[in-house]
Design goal:
It is a single chain. 36% of the residues lie in helices and 21% in strands. It is an alpha+beta fold. It has one domain: Gcn5-related N-acetyltransferase (GNAT) (Aminopeptidase), CATH 3.40.630. It has a 5-stranded mixed beta sheet, with helices on both faces. β4, α3 and β5 form a beta-alpha-beta unit. The protein is globular, with a radius of gyration of 16 Å. The N and C termini lie far apart (48 Å). 21% of the residues are buried.
Length: 160
């Protein structure tokens, strides 16, 4: 297995991985708010990759037998011009996607992808890394905690 930067040759694999992740999220969503729209597979990878391109980001792929079996996407966004009013504004990277195909999880591939992205952020003078984790995704919450991440913000929801 090797970690490489995104290459258009693997666009189909990226689409499949993101769709696999969304199907999983839908399956654990206790609020039934997530969905897998019929256009998701075709459009979401392109939207995510464009966000990476526009925000000084990277997409790394875990490749085995010429197939992407995992991916991570991260960005280094600019702050809003008024963020300084209530925030110290240290440079930060944001992990926007992380998926390793279900068949081979728990083999260290997610850790390798995280290490690669954190290295990219360090090389770009980021002081912090942010990642949003779906609260119902307990395995992901545990994974990030093992990697040294902690909860800083909670979003609460109530159905009316």
């Amino acid at each position: 297995m090797q970690i490489i930067e995104y290459n258009k040759k693997y666009l189909g694999d990226v689409r499949d991985l993101l769709t696999e992740l969304e199907k999983y999220i839908v399956s654990i969503d206790k609020d039934n708010l997530d969905q897998l729209h019929s256009e998701y597979h075709e459009k979401m990878a392109l939207i995510d990759l464009e966000k990476v391109r526009k925000n000084n980001g990277k997409c790394y792929l875990a490749i085995e037998n010429d197939k992407a079996i995992g991916l991570i996407m991260g960005i280094i966004p600019d702050y809003d011009k008024y963020d300084y009013l209530d925030y110290k504004c240290p440079k930060r990277g944001i992990i926007t996607e992380l998926i390793v195909t279900a068949k081979i999880r728990s083999n260290g591939i997610g850790k390798e992808l995280m290490d690669k992205m954190e290295s990219y952020f360090r090389d770009n003078n980021c002081e912090y890394v942010l990642v949003e984790v779906f609260a119902y995704n307990e395995s992901a919450v545990n994974f990030y905690e093992r990697k040294g991440y902690h909860t800083r913000m909670n979003i609460n929801i109530k159905k009316l």
